[in-house]
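DOMAIN: structural biology
WANTED: fold as tokens
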Amino acid sequence: MHTHITVGRAIKKLREARNYTQQFVAEQLQMSQTSYSNMERGKTEISLRRLEQISSLFQISLYELLACTQPPKHLSDHERTFYQEQIVSLQRELASLRSKV
């Protein structure tokens, strides 16, 4: 399973837990409802900047948002390596963005 699909599912769960509509979240993120829906369904990749906006909207840290996406414990070594590489990549991108602020 690709990371953006897992993240999309986590975002959907957070949205539903707060009883937010897709339209409401899309408006808050200044994007179309269709684009937001595609993001939730894993049809589009989500940038780190967008993840930060989403975590801010849901009033959780980026770490908490990404923690919602933890893969199942029954992963193959290949899948585990893939997720670890994704985490490192996102951490580097976050550090880079923070240094620009």
Remarks:
- The chain has one domain: 3-100.
- Residues 3 and 83 are 7 Å apart (CA to CA).
